[in-house]
């Protein structure tokens, strides 16, 4: 009997033993192709020696020195690396240990920024339906993921939710993609006016939505309109790139492809690729200056922020990606993966949509392709696909999203940036037969 308080104490999980590139092996020697990086984390695959050596080298020098007493070289170098490549005038980086911590920091920083400017009434945030920004209380409140929020609803600050830019589900037949994007972006203005613009700090959303929708990019022009509205009403735009950032969609930052820059950008998962727990908040010069010229101190912090070994690992990960031009591979293999998924599953009567960017791909399952009716949630198709895929030696990330309060099913794929065409063939073959078998059994 285990003494570990597992998140799902009833689930029986294999014990992981080792990793090698895109593969993970359990204690019994079974091989799994990691086609989801866990939850879009392991962008370099497993046991990368270059990263391991960089971590070891750092541990041999010093493994921890509190950031309240010292800065450290890997943290300085990693900040330089990110800022040199960041969009707009994001020119300072605040390091934390993961995505939720990065989002919490962004929410608090947005509030403190307006406080320092004497705009004390600005305390509220606006977000989108069917979004996820993390599991801590502030980040959970900022997300529109109903089933995660419900048990804790009394603890959460109220956050108005606007429609996501989710073309497959939200676009009307009588509008073009462009019109749809302008309409849903315009909801931000309506929500701002309802809340009173003088009461709002920031709008937060994911440039490409991950866990709650399965790799959904916005339509062209959507983010330009969002940026305009934020500027017009003087609120901050926080881009949550915890999942979609750090090369996952084919550019280092996902928002680059939208032609706009946020005021705050948070990232995590792919930053350290799972070699260490690390997250980051990139902040515009204007925000940093306001804090420096005001109280001079960001009223927030964590023990492990800027951890030297985490920063050394993340720096090695990012250097490895750049030195080996892995983002070209992300773009090329991403297209191949999309084409192969479409060839294998595109005519399946339960596959409604195949979408995404780079090596961030989603498949939405439906009961009826014409009406786009979601599958009956009680069938728990996403959970069945997850365990059947593991049985077949494939890690993918199926989730039940929230569609009008009901859960719909999608599968997220986020394989490592090092994959080649043999891995794509293996992913598509294993996933294809898993999806077909599970659906054939569940729906007679
Ligand atoms: N934001 C987004 C977009 C995420 O996908 C996640 C995690 O999946 C988080 C925030 C929270 O990150 P973490 O699980 O590292 O706390």
What keyword list fits this structure?
aminotransferase, alpha/beta, Aminotrans_3_PPA_site, five-stranded antiparallel β-sheet, 14 helices, Aspartate Aminotransferase, domain 1, Aspartate Aminotransferase, domain 2, seven-stranded mixed β-sheet, 444 residues, binds pyridoxal-5'-phosphate, 2 domains, single chain
Task: Describe the protein in words.
With 444 residues, this protein is an alpha/beta fold. The chain folds into two domains: 16-47 and 325-442, Aspartate Aminotransferase, domain 1, CATH 3.90.1150; 52-323, Aspartate Aminotransferase, domain 2. The chain has 14 helices and 18 strands. It has helices at 37-40, 49-61, 73-85, 99-116, 137-142, 146-149, 167-170, 177-195, 222-233, 285-293, 308-323, 326-345, 381-391, 421-442, and strands at residues 16-20, 23-26, 31-34, 90-96, 124-128, 161-162, 200-205, 208-209, 216-217, 236-241, 264-267, 279-284, 351-357, 360-368, 373-374, 394-395, 397-400, 409-413. The strands form four sheets. It has a seven-stranded mixed beta sheet, with helices on both faces. A hairpin with a 2-residue loop joins strand 1 and strand 2 (23-26). Helix 3 crosses helix 11 (308-323). The longest helix is centred in the C-terminal third of the chain and has 22 residues, at 421-442. It is globular, with a radius of gyration of 21 Å. The mean pLDDT is 96. Pyridoxal-5'-phosphate binds next to helix 4. Pyridoxal-5'-phosphate is lined by residues 39, 98-100, 103, 132-134, 206, 210-211, 240, 242-243, 268.
